[in-house]
Amino acid sequence: MEGKIGWSVTDAVNYKGFPADKSKTGGWIPAAQILVIEICERLSTMGIAVNLVTYLVGTMHLPSASSANIVTDFLGTSFLLCLLGGFLADSFLGRYKTIAIFALIQTLGTGGLAISTKLPKLHPSPCNNTTESCKQASGFQMGVLYACLYLIALGTGGLKSSVSGFGTDQFDEKDDKEKAQMVYFFNRFVFFISLGTLTAVTVLVYIQDEVGRSWAYGICSGTMFIAVLIFLSGTKRYRYKKSSGSPMVQIFQVILSAIRKRKINFPSNVSLLHEDQSEATRIHHTEQFRFLDKATIVADGDYEKNGPSAPNPWKLCSVTRVEEVKMVTRLLPIWATTIIFWTTYAQMITFSVEQATTMDRSIGNFKIPAGSLTVFFVVAILITLAAYDRIIMPLWKKWKGKQGFTNLQRMSIGLILSTMGMAAASLAETKRLSVAKSVGDTTSTLPISVFLLVPQFFLVGSGEAFIYTGQLDFFITQSPKGMKTMSTGLFLTTLALGFFISSFLVSVVKKVTGTSEEQGWLADNINDGRLDCFYRLLAILSSINFGFYLICAIWYKSNKPQKDLQMESVVNGSPAEEKC
């Protein structure tokens, strides 16, 4: 019996609910089966998103700005729904069921999109000639398209917040060998999902343009269904960890309790504040955000419903629970100042793709699909990750004695590169517009190479490599242990809000710069607009935001408890930092 206990994982169970046997559950194979879901999800979502704007403009005959907003709203909703997926996984379904259910939903959504692009009645008739006014898609046709897109968004959001967490559940952190394997798993996580994106922007986009969108979307649905079967086949080998409940509930409990007791005076000694955690697991009281400490003051009626031994959690919270909420609150300024990066990212899969459709994309007899230009974006990510891992980290360790840049430093580099990317995009667009003005409407393809756009893709792509890994590391390592899933969702909301802000800016700029006679910066035909001014505006906003980020980063470091600073110093010199 003792031997069996030694081979079991203390905080995990098997599919029958018994303690998980290390020799029969977890490890590399189950983790890889989970990773397949994420790769196929990225293949489907990005395969649709990077080339969707050309479908909306060319087939559905929508204006340029409206098409860009539909794409950014779709992606924004996908990432925002990660909060829903995390809540359901933590409170009701668990990670396994959440992944299985929402992966099937995404499969249905991509299948529906394949059908909608195939049936002639679900999109308007093509324009016969250049002088004819193209008829836009009807409300019914757009309704079917929206239903399919947001079914995909629901599936993406539902499973995305649980995949990385369920993957790490397959490794025992208390076992040194498995802990090292988990670090390696994280190391390759971003790499493999980037490969999924690379396949999407090359193979799938080519199939969409040259074979047919219905075929490409059908492949997305088929691969996602196969991924679900692979995922389900590992049911008996997975390790399952019991959820401790949704951290969102804990946050609301602390806030409501503090509001109820806002008029109560603090006791003379902090030792009188309520604490029910053992010394080994408790977090000691800090002076920051003292208004939340009101939730820990013992008052009449705190025990009336649950008996003398268990206080009502909506009336009285422990110091540890309050300190966990404080830890999350400290993350918010950094969270807010990283949103703008994803606003600049949104331009790479909307307006930059539209730019590419007007330019010379020929290499000999081969014509590059406009959506495939984002391959430079993905290649930049892969090159940057490899260079950071093989060159920058060893040099930095030799010079500074640390494994690499801190998460805050990586995020700052990402913000700088994205600002430079928008500046480069503005210069490239100024050149493209000058060519468009010189040739007029005599040709649909401008005599200017599409490779002029490569610098903006490369700069923003390199920026993503730094900011994505920096954000992921920051939100996971700096959040309380019981809030890792929620903190991952918090990180993903920066992507969602970045896309929504992009849609908001496009709408505002179009309204402010347009008149009854002119369409302004963001014209229906980008050759008639001033997209370079819009890019310049984003570069200026990114520069201002970077200034605020630096202030928030300095504030965050100066307001961290001394114990946390010591722990961060240890992490920066351990394999835990190497995962990024």
Automatic annotation (TrEMBL):
Belongs to the major facilitator superfamily. Proton-dependent oligopeptide transporter (POT/PTR) (TC 2.A.17) family. Pfam families: PTR2 (PF00854). SUPFAM superfamilies: MFS general substrate transporter. Keywords: Membrane, Transmembrane, Transmembrane helix. One of its GO terms (cellular component) is membrane. GO terms for biological process: oligopeptide transport. InterPro entries: MFS_trans_sf (IPR036259), POT_fam (IPR000109), PTR2_symporter_CS (IPR018456). GO terms for molecular function: transmembrane transporter activity. This is Uncharacterized protein. The chain crosses the membrane at residues 43-62, 74-93, 100-119, 139-159, 189-208, 214-232, 331-348, 368-388, 408-428, 448-468, 489-509, 534-556. Its main location: membrane. It is a multi-pass membrane protein. PANTHER family: OLIGOPEPTIDE TRANSPORTER-RELATED. It is found in: Membrane. It comes from the Eukaryota. The keyword Protease does not apply. Gene3D superfamilies: MFS general substrate transporter like domains.
